[in-house]
Amino acid sequence: MDIHRCRFVNYPASAINSIAFTHSTLASVSATRKYTQKNIQVRLAIGRANGDIEIWNPLNGAWHQELVIPGGQDRSVDGLVWVTDADEEMADGKIIHGKSRLFSIGYTSTITEWDLEKAKAKKHASGQHGDIWCLGVQPLPHKATAASNSNRKLVAGTVDGNLVLYSLEDDDLKFEKSLMRTPSKNVKFVSIDFQSRNVVVVGCSNGTICAYDIRNGTLLRQMTLGTDINGGSKNIIVWSVKCLPNGDIVSGDSTGQVCIWDGKTYTQAQRIQSHNQDVLCLSVSADGSKIVSGGMDRRTAIYEPIAGQAGRWTKVFHRRYHGHDVKAMASFEGKGMSVVVSGGSDSNPVVIPLRGAGREYHRTLSHLPQNATLQSAAKARLILSWWGNEVRIWHLLTPAQQLLQDPAASTNLRKNRKLVAKILVRGESSISSAAISEDGTLLAAATASDIKVFQLDLAGEQLQIRKVAFETLGRGASKIQISPDKQWISWVEDGSKVMAARVDSENHTVSRPSKLPRLRRQIPKNLLLSGLGSYDRNITQMAFSPDSRMLAVADLAGYMDTWVLRVPQEELPNGTSGKNDDDEDDANRSSDSESDEDDSNSSVEGPRWVRNPKAGLLPKLSAAPVVLSFSPTQQEEDDYSLLVITTLKQLFVFNPRHGSLSEWSRRNTYHKLPEQFRETRDLVKGAVWQGERVWVYGVSFLFMLDLSRDFDPEKDNLVSKRKSQGTKRKRQANESGAGGRMDKNSHGLGPQKVRIAQGPEGKGWEEVDAMIVDDGKSVASASGIEDNDDFEDEDEYVGELQRLREENGEVDGDEEGRKELVEGDKTAKWWHTYQFRPILGIVPVGNGQGDVPVEVALVERPLSGVDLPERYFAEGEWERR
């Protein structure tokens, strides 16, 4: 495979402003109830400065980014809260887990509820008050019942010192009343948390913490921080407040101090100077045994109670996991996990062990999306990328093989690629998905409210763009694809509805869209009414077959649906005429939210999509798919292989027209796959085919797997132990959902006394508590984001075969196998590298046939090339580790 290594995609990093879990802990769920915890839908929501909301599934440490709801112009998500109702018990004893609703604020006077099933905003509500700066949800009573769900409130603090109440009754969201307004002028309510069901604690911008009774708006007590003990500013801002299970209050403020307050007397019990700059966020463990703080000095600190001294705390250690301000964090405990997830201006979520602090490593997740915002028109050598409301099209001029033969290629690399077009999609919403045809003549871009289609004509060095008439009835899409023959456009509407429309290239029009009915699934009623409802029916993967005669989709639940293109008077494969394809066996039509009513596809004249007669035979996957891709050549008559890779690194090859698993996939089960592939932490992002070989990649790795040969697990496991020093070390299994356990001979995470230079010129020394850890074992490397990554020049081009000749130890196999791979022999069954990182996407820009290497563009997006906000330092202050 020949690689164009590029970093020209316009993909800026966006700061993380808010983080929230659906459940902070599962310990409160009654152990006497008959249910399985795996049915509880725990999700993490991350809000970014560009308005994006990301939904992550912890997956016991696998961390799958399931959904990204794009933001829009002048939008920002600055606060997130989940409202989870109490559980209910059905007559048959089954448990309906409490429904979860997601709300956000963005420094406006509006609260937004999000519909995760449709991946769009559901409701907006606002009142006669200023911008909302903080938002809290009223907790359930100790003995919660179904009636308790309708009585809960949202309490918001505003920039003008107003405390307001929003009602959630009858699954609605509406402004109810203003509880009170502070008499002091220029006082802002900055942070909020509930001490009990009816008492809310608010951190203010004037150095005070106030406790209010939300039943009548009465001020119960006002606590004053006073002045900075270090002689700093008198205007102290309480950036964060949290309440411990025993009622005590923890605050973090602009002086860098964490304060502990007695929850009964509302007096200050302790003041800890743990940060050099503002403490911006706090989190507490479910049992109240740990406090975590993050601040503007990039530190994350953990505190524990002092043995034998009730109400007294001490800082156990601190470390800098982030490269910029730590602005938000949230904790989760349950199902074998105990973690704190933090984020800030550097855009990378960091998973920190909570229960295993000091014994396990942290893990840095990627700032890049799970589904690459990258596509290509291989025949035209065009690359399509998008971000915000902008689409960019690049042209790679010279094939890779010609560059390798040119002695002066290194001086012409910049000239080999050219930006040929920028397209701005009008509207307030950002682009959710885009696609380009293989010949580069048709482009489609979708937002949450609209779909735009363009005709492209690359004449010489100029790209002519013409808009195509397309009536989408005012609805957008979360995912869109163009068939290889550019005759069809298919997209996902409202998260789970599959639509298709035919393209008339001559008249520059698109036909009226039609809905493709999905199979109805037998899903228990208690699951449909629990947690996030039908959210896991959201479609995340979509693929056309190379001949454009089959369409396949897959959702988060692991269900797959396939359709075939039926042409009038043409018999479908396998001897099926297709006349009654929509009248399928009732065994495949059980109760579900899907419906075949109003199917406009049945009235379409000419070629139309019908359900694959064998679609019901494809099994439900045990995990969400992250790759869905057809093989480039037919394996059997009229049947392409369908490759599916899940979040658990399961690899399946199906024969979709037969509704069966391929013989190769039956022989090569999960445990026979290469150990390096199974043990790699990061999830697979995509796949590129080269004949029978498939190149799969994640944010930090690139694997080649030969699907024409069986794997030998005994030989592969033996070979994997003979790895060179340049290859990544294998990590131990997760313990709490963050990194693996530390080696016995590694340094602990406890506080260590070290001496550092005092002042930028190194005058004098000072003993401080610091975090001592073996950086070579940092779990950041497992996610592809290392502190000391040495990235090569942006314009460097590396041919993959040439690189293999220059390197040693990157091929997992013996010397003979390495030689065979370099020389292009097909006897090497698998290979992998961690050289490229972080990978935004890999797309083909040439068609490799036979022994001709496939030509691809590999696009990296390291944070080293992203503009971050400037670091803040007080005058005369030198930042210390």
From TrEMBL:
MF term (GO), any: RNA binding
Biased composition (Basic residues): 720-731
Biological processes, Gene Ontology terms: maturation of SSU-rRNA from tricistronic rRNA transcript (SSU-rRNA, 5.8S rRNA, LSU-rRNA)
Sequence segments annotated as region (Disordered): 570-611, 717-761
WD repeats: 272-304
SMART domains for this protein: WD40 (SM00320)
Short name of any one Pfam family annotated for the protein: WD40
GO-annotated cellular components: 90S preribosome; small-subunit processome; t-UTP complex
Keywords for this protein: WD repeat
PANTHER family noted in UniProt: U3 SMALL NUCLEOLAR RNA-ASSOCIATED PROTEIN 4 HOMOLOG
Protein name per UniProt: Quinon protein alcohol dehydrogenase-like superfamily
